[in-house]
Amino acid sequence: MWTVWLDDAPVRRLASRTAQVIWPNAWLAPGFRVRQVRSHRSTTLPNERWVRVRNLLAGIDERDLALAMGRDHTSPYLALPQPRQQYLGREVVGEVVEVGLDVSLVGLGDRVVLRNPVSSTCDALSLQPPCRNCASGNDALCEHRALPWMGVGAGWSSEMIVHEGQLFQPPEDLLAEQAVLLEPAARAIRAMLRCPLEPGSRVLLIGGGIFAQLIVAAARELMTGVTFMVATDLPHEIAALRALEGATIVPRRPRELLRRISELTSATLFERGTRPYLMGGCELVFDCEGSASSLEVALMATHAGGSVVLVLGYPQSQRLETTRLWYDEVTVVGIGNPGPEHVPEHMERSIGTHASNYMLAARLLHKGQLRTDTIITHRLPAAQLRRALAIASHPARHHVTRVVLVHE
Ligand SMILES: [Zn+2]
Questions:
Q1: Are both 173 and 285 inside the same structural domain?
Q2: Which of 1, 204, 245, 306 has its CA 20 to 30 A from that of 334?
Q3: pLDDT tens per residue, range 157-181
C-alpha cells in the first residue's frame, strides 16, 4: 500500500521554501514535503461507520498541486491547526473493500468517489445536533472541520479510510474515467447555480482549462440563449473548446481581452496610461484560473451590477482592487467545494428541482453530455507520482487539462 501526504513539519516547510529559491522544482524531490511511503501494515477503521476504499483513478487537481508546491505559505488558512500529515487527492474513484458494522450507505464492492475534502464533519465526529452548515447539507463547510480527521489517505494514496458520509456512489454504468471527474464537474455546476445564468446573459470565462470546459458543456445542456466567451491563449485549450462548439475564444492578455470584450458586448473601453476602464461588459464572469491577474481582469470585464464567480481558488493571500466592488457594485462569489445548491426555475426542466450537485453531474456525464476524452489528457501509473506532478505543474508546456493517476 502506498500512502501519499504532505509533510507539514515546520522544518520541512522551511527547507522546501528555501530550496525553491534556487531550484524551483525542489518541491518534487523525495526529501522535501511530498511524501510517498510504501507500507505493509494495514490501519484499522477508526469506528464502525468508516470504510476502506481501494483507489482506482485519481486526478491531480490545481488546489492539491498548489499545496504540494507550497504556494500557501502566505495564506491566513495556515492559522488553522494543520495536520502533520495532509493527505492529497480530492478527485478519486475507488472500490469499497472493507466496511464497519454500522455502515449503511455503501457496501462491499461498491464503486465510490470522495464527496468532500478529507476533513472532519459533524457526522464523522458523531456530533448531535449538527452545526448549521451540516444541517443544511453543506458539510464541506462544517464548523468543526478544523478538528482532527480520523481517516487515512486520499486519492493519491492507493487506499483511503474515510467516513461513509464522505462518499458518493455514482450510477453503476458510469465509467471510472467519468466518475473521477465528478468532483470538478459538480463544482462547475455549483458555480453555475450560485449565480444562475439567465437567457441573454453574456458570460466570460477566464482560463480555458477543466472548469471552463465543464461549464460550457454543462450550460449547453441546461439552458439556451447564453453567449460564452473564453479567455485563453493555450492551443490545446482552444482546440478542446472549439470541439465543444458554443464559446467564442478571446485573448487572455488583459488589455487585448478588454478590447475584444468591448467589441463583443458593445461596451466602451476608456484607457488612460496603464489604467483601462470598461463601461459595460459581461453580466457574469467565471474566474477559472484563480491567479491575482485573472481576478483583476475578471473585475474589470464585469458589467456594473454583475458578478464574478471565483471557481478556482487557492490558499493564498493577494491584493484586490476594490473600486469595481463599490463604484459598479460588482459582487464576488467564491466556490470552495461542490456542496448543495437550489436549482432556479428556468433550469428545472433540464435537471429537476433539487438534487446534489454530484447527482446532477453524474446525470450529465452518464448521458454523454459532459465529454471526458478531451479533459483527461495524461494518465500515469500512481507509482510515478513525481513524474505526474512535474507534468501537471507545467500545463502549457505539456498541454495538460487533467493528469490522472492510475492505481495498480
Ligand atoms: Zn458540522
A1: no
A2: 245
A3: 999 999 999 999 998 889 999 999 9
